[in-house]
Amino acid sequence: MAVAIAGGTFATVVGTQVSNVQIDAWQMQGTATHAAWPVWRLRIAAAFGNVAAREALADVLVSSAQLDERREGVESYRRLALDGVPAAQGTLGHLLLRGLPGIAPDYAQSRRWLSVAASHDAQAAYDLSALYRNGYGVARNPHLAIHWLEQAAQAGLPLAQFQLANEYRFGATLPHDDALALQWLTRAANAELPEANLALAIAYRNGELGMARDEDEYWAHVKETEHDLKHVSRP
């Protein structure tokens, strides 16, 4: 009896008093190795209602090589989303839009959660733009696609800024505007997006976007592109 009580007390302490630093460490260990010990610790903390641990556990599970764990991870994100956890709502929409190995996309549910998250989550707004642009589970709607793309760009997402620049340069929905294209391209380049720095390099080489040809700027942005590629990270 004493052992059982002590075990229950230990589990309660682990679940309710664990620090976010510990949770982050367990999450990194679990994602990198999927060792039983950090995942077990996350499960204990999550079982006692620690929201950070629940999110960390869901993240570890969706990256698992095991299909049953990936499914459990998606379901964990679904429960978090239903509980009103903002980050989980966007992540669930993202996962359902793209699917996972062995788990098909669910565009209807993706749109549901992306629509909830898009007003406060730049990645969710970008994903919602892609959904409407490509007609994933809905009729294509270029105007809604642009609306959400602009929101993601304004919120600071470099990929959205780069794509919005291209819409002003080459798209059929927005009026052609080299000045706005250059503005958004520059913002994306300043955020170290390789595609944006490469596009600027080419623009300087060819004298595009209202700029004079400039070999020095061309090579400067080529070097920035090479630098950016060393740090590239995509959702």
From TrEMBL:
Protein name according to UniProt: Tetratricopeptide repeat protein
Organism name: Paraburkholderia agricolaris
UniProt cross-references to InterPro entries, sorted A to Z: Sel1-like, Sel1_AlgK, TPR-like_helical_dom_sf
Pfam families (UniProt xref): Sel1
Gene3D superfamilies to which the protein is assigned, alphabetical: Tetratricopeptide repeat domain
